[in-house]
Amino acid sequence: MLSGAKIGANLSYHLCGQLLQHYVDTGINPHLLIITPDDSGLWVGRWWLGFMVASLASALLVIPVAGLPARLSTFHDLNDNEVSETYGSDKGSDNKCPTDGQVVGEWVAVEEEVVVVKDQSTTSFWRLARNWPYVCVTIASDCLVVTGLAAFGPKIVEQQFRVGAGVSALAAGVIGLSGAGGGNIAGSFAIKRYDMSIPAIMRFSMAMSALSLALGFGFAISCPEPVFAGVNTPYGNGSTGRLYGSHSNPYGLVEKCNEGCGCRPALYDPVCDGTGVQYYSPCYAGWAESNVSVGQKTGGLVAAARHLCPHTCPLLPLFLVAMFGLIFVTFMSAMPALTATLRCVEKSQKSVALGVQWFTVRLIGSIPAPLLFGRLIDHSCILWQPQSPTNTTGTPGADITGSCLVYDNRQMAYNVLILTIVCKCVTLAAVVAGKQLYKPAVNSVHPSHK
Questions:
Q1: SS3 state at 48
Q2: CATH architecture assigned to 131-224+313-449
Q3: Which one has a higher pLDDT value, 206 or 26?
Q4: Contacting residues for 335 by C-beta, under 8 A, at least 6 apart
């Protein structure tokens, strides 16, 4: 089931990758605008169509789900044969499913309906908080890194290795689909094949966490950013364009050859000359905007093209292999962690334990992950696009910062690497603590304990 969820999420990357190859507006021919999905910084794909497809598919799935019974016919048999490894409770756990009229702890079963005799919510939460293996497994969920990669993985691939948005989404979908789905299946098979107890599961998770920590150093793989005149390299005539900008000239783009042209920073239209140097727009490059197609420039003709400069980096396959290994090993621990959670809590608390666990995982993982990854990636930006269309001086006074146009790839790689390594170290420490703190209840048994 979990593998299916991961497969579905990653299949959406393939679909979105194909949709991003089509221009955002259906009634406009992008060829007339001289932009393409692979080499232009102005391309915007048809992102909105994915939401419509997902909404329609979700609505159709309601029909078969609504036909499922309230309880499966094998509910009692599965609960009677379930293995109990409840964490150190002297009273043990209510291991059998309650039958008609049977009192179990604070619960009474009357003809298929379980009625709460006394509100024990506060006590249940307190008992879960004192269940140290449960707490450690929850902390070791590793959801922050997984969610961050799901949100920003395609962007990292696109910026680091200069590939199109569609290609980066497709690559992220392939490694996510095979890594997450395969890891879940492999982890489930390992538990079934070796009939793991909770201590064995903890040891298995320790090994996977240590391996994923090592694979996390794959984020150190990066490629140099493009050669951008006025940003990370001076203009070609030997002038001293201010690299990375200053307060008076925030982007270092204004120079003698273009300071009288009235170039507007809000109009980003990258061009590439014949030497592989990229310019912010034809105006900043000193070209007459109407003559860009023929490469006319004051003083002679030069090769010019209205797109990003081509750039190849041979490290992309190595990076994808490292990311596949990281995702595969991370998800190999997902099913063992879920199994350990269900085994180490009492039967009457299983639904509450899963609810509290998923709430906590999203609170400390899914919610802050996009914020942290996004902040760290933005921190590596070296060229922001201003949004004020009236400012023609390049001064930052009334400009509103727009999207990032150029990143420092090495800084981006280091930022993501540090966050990943910190999260992996916390995960490993939590698993080790859970292994050391676990003690079975008096009546908890497992075949490996006999």
A1: helix
A2: Up-down Bundle (1.20)
A3: 206
A4: 2, 184, 187, 188, 191
